[in-house]
Design goal:
13% strand, 3 strands, globular, 86 residues, 3-stranded antiparallel beta sheet, alpha+beta, Arc Repressor Mutant, subunit A
Length: 86
């Protein structure tokens, strides 16, 4: 069984991972792209995921912890990345 510390991620690490995932294929994510991801996560995505009880986000510590079950994990892996350039 996975313990809580293995499911916890620092906010800045999450920003980097998401930014790298939505970057252009041949480039590293720019500072501007990282800032857009940072804002979207903090103001839109993390609050919605927390409201759905999929994550626990502690803004004070910057820790994001997955608290959903196997079904939620499967759903999240099936979600297609959106195109940030649209």
């Amino acid at each position: 069984m996975t313990n809580a510390s293995e499911k916890t991620l620092a906010y800045d690490v999450l920003v980097d991972r998401v930014a790298d995932r939505v970057r252009d294929e041949d480039e590293r994510a720019s500072d501007e792209q990282r800032q857009r991801v940072r804002i979207a996560l903090r103001h839109t995505h993390l609050p919605k995921l927390e409201e759905a009880r999929i994550i626990d986000y502690e803004a004070e510590t910057g820790h994001v912890q997955f608290v959903g079950g196997e079904l939620e994990r499967d759903i999240l892996t099936l979600v297609e990345p959106y195109d940030v350039h649209k």
